[in-house]
Each structure stands twice: as C-alpha cells, then as structure tokens.
C-alpha cells in the first residue's frame, strides 16, 4: 500500500451476430495512490501550500503514521457496520422551547459539554455548521439571569482548561479552515463564523470535547452517550450577539463536516440524519439519527452554485386554497435559524395578491408589524383564512399548518398578518413558522427532505397515521427521555446563517441508461481513479 500499484483491467465484450463473432478487447490502466505516499504529499502541498503541510505530514512507519491508519480503519468499520444507536438526543431531553419575541421566535435546547459537564442553552440553526458557546470571554453577552426576563438561573461560560476531556484542535487539522493563517501547524486553530445579521459574528478557537447525549430504543431505558465533537470556544462575539441574542451559543445543524451531525455519523454513533418538530405551544423536539416515518413525503436537496452545502429544495408552485398559481416556481433554503418565511419577490407578489382576493377583507396595519398584509378579524372569522400549500415534484404537497400571525388585544384575537416577506436574495427561505406542525427530517445521507404531520409530543406515531405508518424504529417516549431535572424557563436566542462555504462534499450523479458491461466498466474505472 505504500508504493504505486499498477492495476491492469482487461474487459472483453462479446457481440454475436447471425453467423459471426466480433471480439472487442480494451485495456485500461489506473494508478492507486496511498494517502500518505510521497506522491500524495506532493499533491497536497501543491494544493494547500508549503512548509506547514510538510511539517504536519506523518513520517512513514512513525507512531503518528500508524495511529492515523488505525483511526481510518475504525471509521471504515463504523461505516460498514452501521450506526450504533438508532436515535440520539441531548442528555437533558429532546425537548426544544421558544419564548416568542423575547429572543427572536426561535427554538433552543439544553446541552451538556465537557467533564465535568456544563449546561448551555443553544439556538438550533439548520443554516450554519458550527456549535459554539461563550468561552473564556473577551467580549460576550451578559450571562447573568438579571439581564433577561425569562431566565431562572445564570447562563454558563465554557472554559477548556476546566474540562478534563477538552483538546485543542491544531491548525493542521483538516477541519481548520483558517489553518493557512497560522504561524505553525501545531498552534490552536482559530475560527470566525460570520452571520447574515449586520456585523454579527462569533470568533475564537476550535476545541474538541465531549457532548453528552442520550439514546433510547423502543421501550428500553435511556442510556447516556459521550460523543467527541468540535466546539467553537467563542471568546468574542459582535453585532446582535452582544445585545443578548444567542447569549449562550448556537448549535449549527448544517451539512458541513464540522457540524456535530457529521461527527456523530463519522463515528458510527447515529445515522446521518436528524429531525426537528415545532408545535403551536412554542415547544418541540429534536432527534439525531431520525430517518422519519414510513408515510412521510419527500423531496431532494438541490445544489446551490454547483454544490449541495445547504438544505435547498425546489418548490414547483404555490397554492392558495384550491387555486394553484402559475409562475410561482422557486428554490428555497429550509432553515430553522430563520423565524419566518421569505419568498422571491415575484413569487411573493403572486401569493399575496391571490391571498388578498381569497380573504376578501379590508387590509389593516399594526404598529411594529414587519408584515405588509395584515387584516382585522375575530376568532370567529379565522375559519375564512385560506390554506397555503407548497407543491414539490411528484405531486408532494406541503400544506402550511398556520401561515398567519395572530394579533391579540386583551387576550382576544383582533387581527392577523400573512407571515411571509419578500426575500432580498434570489431564492426563498422556508422558516420555522412554515415547519410548525410537522416532523421535518433532514436526511443528510440520501440528501432528501422528509415531512409528516406530527404533534411533536409522541413522535412514535405521527398524527393522522395508522399503526402501519409508525417508523420502524419508534422514537423514545417522554418517560424514557426524562432526566428528573428541574424545569428551565429560559429565553431563546437567534441563530443567523453563516456565509462561510460548507466543507461538505455533496453531489448529484445523473443516472444514465448504459449497457450493463459499459456501466460496470465506468464504475470500476471511476473507483480506480479514487485516492485511497
């Protein structure tokens, strides 16, 4: 394996005619390259540059060399054997919570990090990759409960030096995007996560530490799982993060290799998938490894700028009531880190115009409302609000559970607003409000989005389905997830979307109809071109 290997592949295809034979012989050669060979070293150095890569390259037959090989062997075994656990969720429970406008309408969950474990309330963001928490702070948001209306205890600050399981991530690590800025390959890796909100970012150092999770299968009792993951030690925040938005950190759930979901799948701990469910009562659930129910509907993720590094889907059209609108086809990012939904301007115009025709009510305005299309009504008039549905390929429909935002006065409904806005970019964003009432599964392995109706309480049986439609591996019950801990009433935080490109490599392959012999030939040739 440490030398060039020359493989000659000879394939002979025999074609028979009426009384003659034609033999066509072809010989193909391909070179296999060991991952730590001199040839690969030259390639990596030329691609990534210079002395830093050379100094980080393991010497042949050294201890580091064999440790890397063994580590790769374990990863391959995990891939072949499948995931160790069917479902995983934070050790404090799968429940997520939102406190409305207090901190941006988003959902958050409690997680435990390090040894001894420290608790953090993190925003759930499917539009970014990194899990970061306030850490050895230079400039962070206040963490005292006195600064927040809904806190019942102080928030935490992480310190790697106080955790016996923490390790610095070096600049030579393949997940260190800023490694080229380091003076030496062994120094701690810096990170900067920039978000779409004006001048909003988190920066610090990458560390590896233990994320405390729990698993449960069927009626079995809960078992605890310690998973090593990459964490951003957020020493300095800026923009809205200094105003108390996301004071305790953000859990990125994107497709990047640095996300905790990628780490769990790579380690063989859980399938490369997760689900989120949001309910009307501002609660919800999150499960790592969830692949959904049998009865769920699906659509494929699409590439953006030539690669799949975000949860992009293609919407074939929009329907208001029974009227399905022409020229409402668009692409959208499915993002739990966006509170409400945005449509491309042209699509937005068609949708709000048809909605206003159907509602047949005089438009109103409400001070502070970010939405343009608002109407006066009472609780008795809510049944007149038309449905809004998104149509996906193969006639898969997604009926929005509640597309409006209700206006209350003295605990009585006095009006509502259509909770969509025009997008400032050329694609839409399906936000948290459109996902409400659904168990939304992000299948990162097959690159599909799945959805099924759910009340988010007992996810082992989706709402409106029969026992036959239960998932093959039912999700844990509330009792199985119970930790016996205290109730946390804590304000959520807002998670933005990072603009840093994902490091994940995802591609669609067009399936061509080829003769069997040629298909096999192309497949083998493609494999031989791969680097070990």
TrEMBL record:
PANTHER family with a match to the protein in the record: ASPARTIC PROTEINASE-LIKE PROTEIN 1 (PTHR13683:SF743), ASPARTYL PROTEASES (PTHR13683)
Top-level taxon: Eukaryota
Membrane topology type: Lipid-anchor
Region annotation Disordered: where it falls in the sequence: 458-504
Position of the signal peptide: 1-25
Subcellular location per the Swiss-Prot or TrEMBL entry: Cell membrane
The family this protein is said to belong to: Belongs to the peptidase A1 family.
InterPro entries: Aspartic_peptidase_A1, PEPTIDASE_A1, Peptidase_aspartic_dom_sf, TAXi_C, TAXi_N
GO MF entries: aspartic-type endopeptidase activity
Biological processes per GO annotation: proteolysis
Active site residues according to the UniProt entry: 125, 335
Keyword Nucleotidyltransferase: no
Alphabetic keyword roster: Aspartyl protease, Cell membrane, Glycoprotein, Hydrolase, Lipoprotein, Membrane, Protease, Signal
Keyword Membrane: yes
Segments crossing the lipid bilayer: none
Main location class: membrane
Protein name in the entry: Peptidase A1 domain-containing protein
């Amino acid at each position: 394996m440490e030398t060039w290997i020359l493989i000659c592949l000879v394939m002979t295809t025999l074609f028979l005619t009426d009384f003659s034979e034609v033999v066509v012989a072809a010989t193909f050669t391909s070179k296999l390259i060991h991952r730590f060979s001199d040839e690969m070293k030259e390639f990596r150095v030329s691609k990534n540059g210079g002395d830093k890569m050379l100094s980080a390259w393991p010497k042949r037959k050294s201890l580091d060399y064999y440790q890397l090989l063994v580590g790769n062997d374990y990863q391959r075994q995990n891939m072949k054997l499948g995931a160790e656990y069917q479902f995983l969720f934070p050790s404090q429970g799968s429940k997520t919570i939102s406190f409305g406008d207090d901190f941006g309408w988003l959902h958050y969950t409690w997680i435990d990090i390090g040894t001894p474990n420290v608790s953090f309330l993190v925003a759930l963001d499917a539009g970014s990759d990194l899990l970061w928490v306030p850490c050895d702070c230079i400039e962070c948001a206040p963490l005292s409960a006195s600064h927040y209306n809904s806190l019942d205890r102080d928030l935490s600050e992480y310190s790697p030096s106080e955790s016996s399981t923490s390790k610095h991530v070096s600049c030579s690590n393949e997940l260190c995007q800023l490694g080229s800025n380091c003076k030496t390959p062994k120094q701690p890796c810096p990170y900067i996560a920039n978000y779409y909100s004006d001048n909003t970012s988190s920066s610090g150092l990458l560390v590896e530490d233990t994320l405390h999770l729990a698993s449960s299968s069927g009626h079995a009792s809960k078992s605890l799982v310690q998973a090593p993951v990459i964490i951003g030690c957020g020493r300095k925040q800026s923009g809205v993060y200094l105003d108390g938005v996301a004071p305790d950190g953000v859990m990125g759930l994107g497709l990047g290799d640095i996300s905790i979901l990628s780490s769990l799948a790579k380690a063989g701990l859980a399938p490369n998938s997760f689900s989120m469910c949001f309910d009307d009562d501002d609660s919800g659930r999150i499960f790592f490894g969830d692949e959904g129910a049998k009865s769920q509907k699906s659509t494929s993720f699409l590439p953006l700028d030539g690669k799949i590094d975000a949860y992009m889907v293609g919407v074939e059209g929009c329907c208001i009531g029974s009227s399905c609108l022409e020229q409402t086809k668009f692409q959208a990012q499915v993002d739990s880190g966006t509170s409400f939904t945005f449509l491309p301007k042209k699509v937005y115009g068609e949708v709000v115009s048809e909605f206003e025709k159907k509602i047949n009510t005089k438009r109103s305005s409400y001070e502070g409302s970010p939405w343009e299309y608002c109407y006066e009504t009472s609780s008795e008039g809510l049944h007149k609000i038309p449905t809004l549905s998104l149509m996906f390929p193969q006639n898969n429909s997604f009926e929005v559970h509640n597309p409006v935002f209700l206006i209350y006065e003295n605990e009585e409904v006095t009006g509502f607003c259509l909770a969509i806005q025009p997008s400032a970019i050329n694609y839409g964003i399906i936000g948290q409000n459109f996902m409400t009432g659904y168990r939304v599964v992000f299948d990162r392995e097959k690159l599909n989005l799945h959805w099924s109706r759910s009340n988010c309480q007992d996810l082992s049986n989706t709402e409106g389905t029969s026992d036959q439609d239960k998932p093959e591996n039912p999700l844990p019950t509330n009792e199985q997830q119970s930790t016996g801990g205290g109730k946390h009433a804590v304000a959520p935080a807002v998670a933005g979307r990072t603009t840093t490109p994902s490091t994940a490599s995802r591609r669609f392959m067009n399936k061509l109809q080829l003769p069997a012999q040629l298909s096999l030939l192309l497949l083998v040739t493609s494999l031989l071109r791969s680097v070990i």
